[in-house]
Amino acid sequence: MPRIPALATKDGGIVLRVIDRVARRRFGAVPEPMAVSAHNPRVLWAGLVTELFAERVAKELPVSVRELAVYRAAVQLGCSWCVDFGTMLQKHEGLDIDRLKSIDDYAESPLYSRQERLALAYADAMTATPVTVTDEQVAELEAEFGRKGVLELTYQIALENMRARMNNALDITEQGFTSGDACRVPQVTPPPPQAG
C-alpha cells in the first residue's frame, strides 16, 4: 500500500471522476500514481499535462527504441509500478514483451537491434548516479537518430526517472496491469495484410 493512499474517485470531485472514466477506458484501471496525486490537484494536473504532451511529442524515435529505453530506466530504478505499466504499454504497441526477460543482457543479446542497444545503454548512463553519459555516446546517438531523436530520447528517459523516483518514494508498487485483472483493455490487433 502506498505511503499516501490513493484518493477514492468519489472523494475527488468532478475532475477525478472524468480522469477515472478516461483512464478506465484507456488502461482498464486508474493508474495508482494518478489516484495518489489527486490529493493535490495541482500536482495531478501538472502530471497529466506532462504525460499528455510527452506522448504527443514522441514522434522521432521508433516505438520500440523509446519504450525499451523508458522500461530500462524503470528497471534500473526498481520501480515495480513502472515496469508493470511499461510492459502493458509495450504489449499494446504490439512489441515483443518476452524479450524483456533478457533486458539485463541487452548488450550481447540478439533480441535487441543496434538502435535499441544504443538507447538502452543511454538509459543506463542517464539513470546512473552520478550520470555517466559521455560525449561519444551522445554523438553516436545523434548519428543514429538525429538531434531531434536524441532530445526526445533524453526527455523520455528523464521523465521516467522522475516517475520511478516519485513512485519509489511513495511506495507505489505494481498494480497488476500485466498479470491481473486491472487491465482488460484489448490488445491492438494489426490489420490483416492486403492482398496485392
TrEMBL record:
Domain Carboxymuconolactone decarboxylase-like intervals: 51-124
SUPFAM superfamilies per record: AhpD-like (SSF69118)
PANTHER family registered for this protein in UniProt: 4-CARBOXYMUCONOLACTONE DECARBOXYLASE FAMILY PROTEIN (AFU_ORTHOLOGUE AFUA_6G11590), CARBOXYMUCONOLACTONE DECARBOXYLASE-LIKE DOMAIN-CONTAINING PROTEIN
Name used for this protein in its record: AhpD family alkylhydroperoxidase
Source taxon at top rank: Bacteria
Organism listed in the record: Amycolatopsis magusensis
Pfam families given in the database record: CMD
InterPro entries in alphabetical order: AhpD-like, CMD-like
